[in-house]
């Protein structure tokens, strides 16, 4: 029997999909690229963005039409608001949370579908690592974080706490991932969020913060490096608050990075470790200091600012000021002068005035981000700001997005041109859309393309001399190829 899985949303959902595939394939299903050939169809949804939820409705409408002519099992999971989950119960055969994924076999059996391995004993599938843990997990009790006003928090606080027991998500983390790449991988280090940004639904879809045991994280990373992986990203909704839910029982984020750095130094292997996303409120100098000390910790920082105006940041419940953000960036520039800086920005947030938007433009001008993911604000059900009037016209939002995009392009162009003539180490990620060219990424995650038809370079480090620069990309020649031509 065949299955197909659609993954929507952020890198966390992509990482979740790798463990989902492991569990599905343990039941005897085989992946297929075409949805119409599958007997099981699933989607990992994302309630954080309405566009993603709209895609789910489009998919299930089509799949339910197919059910008229074929036997088909459908499921939905992922990052879901309770309101979306309730609606999906009427449309999908199975609706479950990611921490319930290890029980997918029993869910399918209860639904009445027989899988190729449905008669096997539990002992025969122990290698999946999804046996329930017997040790009790500590439920965090210190919720003394700054939160929105009482009226912005649901009366049913159970949706904001870890479901039942953090041990449930630990069962999910024990599943061995079915990595979608042979050279780059994601490692979840944390689930949920305690920040309660008023525009964000994550605390309502994934619950409160739960940190994964550092020993498990390090074991997974070491195994990836042993297998030759070159790019590894640590994932969490707020990675630099890692360990805060287990104060005294788990190491903080900078110590986790230190252990990774020491391993990388001792291993003699070449690899880059990234992390996303940190929060300015929890970003410490210790994190930046550790990155500066170790070659394997990539010199690229993704630090969401969201707005350049302090009053807007207060309404967003971001718990940082622009001056605090400025201090962090100044320290990054001092300790990591070669690091690239990425950010996230929302334009047209409820009540944003022209003056407040101009402050965001000035922030773009001051910090000269290498990349900014700019989004027009749209209310998400469940998030606190969804109760407020969305009072900025769509045309105004579009205009503000365009202005910031032009600002980003201007600074990106200047930075990229400064790299012309330099020799840069890159990781090849595959064929480029430009015929006869290969695509690669610098340590700072800037796109580089160079002429080559050698597909064996994919997943390998090489050195490129930059000859030209365009908006958001660089072009050059492989020094290895130049050397080979000179010697022939």
Compile the SSE list and pairings.
Blueprint: E1 2-7, H1 11-26, E2 30-31, E3 40-46, H2 50-66, E4 73-79, H3 82-88, E5 94-95, H4 104-111, H5 167-173, E6 184-188, E7 190-191, H6 202-205, E8 210-211, H7 214-226, E9 231-235, H8 253-267, E10 272-276, H9 285-293, E11 300-302, H10 310-315, H11 322-335, E12 340-347, H12 354-367, E13 371-376, H13 394-417, E14 423-431, E15 437-442, E16 447-451, E17 461-470, E18 473-478, H14 479-487
Parallel strand pairs: 1-2, 1-3, 3-4, 4-5, 6-9, 9-10, 11-12, 12-13, 16-18
Antiparallel strand pairs: 7-8, 14-15, 14-17, 15-16, 17-18
Helix pairs in contact: 7-8, 8-9, 9-11, 12-13
Short summary:
The chain has 488 residues and is an alpha/beta fold. It is 33% helix and 20% strand.
């Amino acid at each position: 029997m065949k299955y197909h899985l659609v993954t929507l949303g952020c890198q966390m959902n992509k990482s979740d999909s790798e463990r989902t595939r492991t569990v599905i394939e343990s039941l005897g299903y085989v992946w297929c690229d075409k949805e119409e050939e599958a007997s099981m169809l699933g989607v990992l949804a994302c309630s954080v963005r309405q566009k993603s939820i709209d895609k789910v409705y489009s998919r299930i409408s089509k799949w339910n039409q197919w059910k008229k002519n074929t036997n088909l099992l459908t499921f939905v999971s992922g990052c879901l608001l309770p309101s979306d989950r309730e609606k999906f119960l009427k449309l999908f055969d199975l609706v479950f949370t990611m921490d319930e994924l290890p029980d997918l076999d029993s869910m399918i059996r209860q639904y009445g579908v027989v899988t190729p391995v449905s008669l096997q004993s539990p002992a025969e599938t122990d290698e999946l690592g999804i046996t329930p843990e017997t040790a009790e997990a500590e439920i965090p009790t210190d919720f003394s974080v700054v939160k929105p006003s009482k009226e912005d928090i649901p009366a049913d606080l159970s949706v904001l706490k870890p479901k039942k027991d953090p041990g449930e998500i630990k069962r999910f983390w024990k599943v061995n991932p079915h990595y979608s790449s042979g050279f780059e991988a994601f490692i979840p280090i944390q689930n949920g969020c305690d920040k309660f940004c008023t525009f964000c639904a994550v605390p309502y879809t994934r619950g409160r913060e739960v940190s994964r045991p550092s020993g498990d994280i390090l074991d997974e990373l070491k195994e990836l490096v042993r297998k030759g992986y070159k790019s590894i990203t640590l994932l969490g909704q707020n990675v630099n608050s890692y360990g805060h839910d287990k104060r005294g029982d788990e190491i903080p984020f900078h110590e986790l990075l230190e252990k990774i750095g020491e391993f990388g130094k001792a291993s003699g292997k070449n690899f880059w470790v990234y992390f996303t996303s940190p929060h300015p409120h929890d970003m410490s100098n210790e994190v930046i200091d550790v990155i500066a000390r170790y070659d394997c910790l990539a010199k690229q920082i993704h630090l969401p600012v969201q707005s350049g105006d302090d009053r807007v940041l207060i309404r967003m419940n971001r718990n940082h000021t622009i001056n605090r953000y400025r201090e962090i960036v100044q320290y990054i520039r001092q300790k990591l002068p070669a690091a690239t800086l990425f950010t996230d920005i929302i334009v047209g947030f409820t009540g944003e005035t022209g003056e407040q938007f101009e402050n965001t433009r000035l922030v773009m001008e001051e910090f000269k981000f290498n990349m900014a993911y700019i989004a027009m604000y749209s209310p998400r059900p469940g998030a606190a700001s969804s109760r407020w009037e969305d009072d900025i016209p769509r045309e105004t939002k579009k205009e503000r997005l365009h202005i910031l995009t032009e600002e980003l392009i201007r600074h990106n162009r200047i930075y990229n041109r400064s790299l012309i003539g330099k020799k840069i180490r890159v990781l090849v990620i595959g064929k480029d859309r430009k015929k006869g060219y290969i695509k690669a990424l610098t340590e700072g995650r800037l796109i580089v393309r160079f002429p080559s038809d050698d597909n064996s370079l994919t997943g390998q480090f090489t050195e490129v001399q930059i000859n030209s620069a365009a908006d958001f990309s660089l072009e050059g020649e492989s020094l290895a190829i130049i050397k080979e031509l000179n010697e022939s």
